[in-house]
Amino acid sequence: MSRVLGGCRALMAAARAGAKGAAAPASTATKEAAASPAAAPAKSKRGLLKPVPLSTEMRKFVGVPEMSRTEAIKKIWEHIKDNKLQNPSNKREFFCDEKLKTIFGDKDKVGMLEIARLISPHFHKSN
């Protein structure tokens, strides 16, 4: 049964309770805790999710002084999709307009896997 349900204890408990005909009180408590975000203590964001100060070029691109790396990449992809800059023959690369050239170092084309490396200098370490 664990292979079918992916080893998730809550799903396995619910499946067992359904097979016996009784509701599992532990699974309903788990659902209630997951449904109410106020009940969980707030965790500080770390790593890629932590907002950090941006360079002036990146600030002009995204419009805010601090942002996490993942949010910045989402903004870049929004810009690429909105302006149809993705190469139709090779979806893994896109063409840079003037706005993207400011953050990608005047490159005409950038590959999908290069984005993280090219935006890295635009994030300043915060203490």
Automatic annotation (TrEMBL):
SUPFAM superfamilies, per database record: SWIB/MDM2 domain
Positions of the UniProt region annotated as Disordered: 21-49
InterPro entries tied to this protein: SWIB_domain (IPR019835), SWIB_MDM2_dom_sf (IPR036885), SWIB_MDM2_domain (IPR003121)
Residues forming coiled coils: none
Low complexity: bias regions: 21-42
Domain DM2 positions: 47-125
UniProt xrefs under PANTHER family: SWI/SNF-RELATED MATRIX-ASSOCIATED ACTIN-DEPENDENT REGULATOR OF CHROMATIN SUBFAMILY D
Identification of the protein by name: Upstream activation factor subunit spp27-like
Lineage: Eukaryota, Viridiplantae, Streptophyta, Embryophyta, Tracheophyta
